[in-house]
Amino acid sequence: MKKLLYIASSAILVACSSSKEAIAIDNDDTTDYAEKFAKTITAKDLGQHLFVYASDEFEGRDTGEPGQKKAVKYLKDFYISKGIKSPIGGNDYFQEVPSAYLSNNRRGMKLKDSENVVAFIKGTEKPDEIVIISAHLDHEGVKNGEIYNGADDDGSGTVAILEIAEAFKKASDAGKGPKRSVLFLHVTGEEKGLLGSKYYTENPIFPLANTVTDLNIDMVGRVDERHKGTPNYVYLIGSDKLSTELHNISEAMNKKYTNIDIDYKYNDENDPNRFYYRSDHYNFAKHNIPIIFYFNGTHADYHKPTDTPDKINYELLENRTRLVFHTAWEVANREKRIIVDKAEK
Question: How many CB atoms lie within 10 A of CB 9?
Answer without folding.
Answer: 14
